[in-house]
Design a protein that fits this description.
By secondary structure, the chain is of the alpha+beta class. Helices cover 36% and strands 31% of the residues.
Length: 180
């Protein structure tokens, strides 16, 4: 092959870095004071910025009950936690720098558990807001004073007795037809 047909390696700019979008979800220990949870989030964002990363979205950590207990070795013993503060940050970072960030995040004494995922373009454009979704699923209280019709216990018991009588009559007709 001639030189004109060979790709030129020098043509690729090696100074350009490829940033990838990630989401880091984290649980903060419930023993951390509520006012100090913001400091934990700030420390995570500072670790990302220290590796020339850029935070572009976040959901502040809020306390909630976990679906199951999480165990962590702390202060010389295994401890179980049934609640935690949950939050996430989305950031862009070089893939080579991710391991360094995660090593320091996992070593943070106030963090219970973490999960980092690489985001697709669709996921990046449509973040899922956990705490907003959680509020929508909570049970709502209905004020019974505002109901149009009130049904007394006697009316309910009367309907139940009528249903029992009707069912007994149907059963006796069915039994007579079968020859029982």
């Amino acid at each position: 092959m001639t030189e004109s047909q060979m790709p030129v390696a020098d043509a690729i700019d090696s100074t350009e870095t490829e940033f990838v979008s990630y989401e880091l979800a984290y649980h903060v220990l419930p023993t951390v004071a509520e006012g100090e949870v913001v400091d934990v989030t700030a420390a995570i964002k500072q670790l990302i910025a220290g590796q020339q990363g850029e935070v572009f979205d976040e959901e502040a950590a809020e306390r909630f009950e976990l679906a199951y207990e999480i165990e962590k070795y702390l202060e010389g013993r295994h401890r179980r936690f049934s609640s935690a503060y949950f939050g996430w940050v989305r950031f862009r970072l070089e893939p080579a720098a991710l391991a360094a960030v995660m090593e320091e995040v996992d070593a943070h004494k106030s963090i219970l558990r973490t999960l980092v995922v690489r985001l697709t373009k669709v996921e990046e454009a449509n973040p899922f807001r956990f705490h907003e979704a959680l509020v929508d699923t909570k049970v709502r209280t209905i004020n019974t004073d505002e109901l149009d019709e009130e049904v007394s216990e006697e009316e309910v018991e009367g309907e139940v007795k009528e249903d029992l009588v009707d069912n007994a009559e149907v059963a006796s007709v069915d039994d007579a037809e079968k020859g029982v």
